[in-house]
Design goal:
Elements (H helix, E strand, L loop, with lengths): L5 H11 L1 H5 L2 H17 L4 H12 L6 H11 L3 H16 L8 H16 L2
Length: 119
């Protein structure tokens, strides 16, 4: 989390409780990354995983034009499509006081990838 060391961040997240922690933009990134990595390990095409994620998450809100652009990108560049999807979903789902900028989302995705991939 922005401005917190790992111990402070862990204590803060623990104090939130599960439901509040899952509504953080960082949780959205982890959920998206985990879904894509696990599906990829099973041989599921990224496009199908993005469609499944969006079908589940569109109840919050959706932007069909942006999502279709991400699907097209997933046919040629999974990594960039993943980051774009994380940016897209966090912009839609996050509350104004906890929004992350695109560079922060990219950094979180790069840091979380090897960790999630080892699960």
């Amino acid at each position: 989390m922005r401005g917190l060391d790992s111990i402070d961040a862990r204590l803060f997240i623990k104090s939130l409780g599960s439901f509040a922690a899952m509504s953080l933009p960082e949780a959205t990134i982890v959920i998206v990354m985990e879904s894509l990595i696990l599906a990829h390990k099973k041989g599921v095409p990224s496009r199908l995983t993005f469609e499944r994620l969006e079908n589940t998450r569109r109840m919050f809100k959706s932007d069909l034009h942006r999502f279709e652009a991400i699907l097209l990108l997933s046919d040629t560049n999974d990594a960039e499509a993943c980051i774009n999807y994380c940016v897209y979903r966090t912009e839609i789902e996050a509350k104004n006081d906890v929004k992350l900028i695109a560079d922060e989302i990219k950094q979180l995705a790069l840091v979380s990838y090897p960790i999630i991939n080892s699960w």
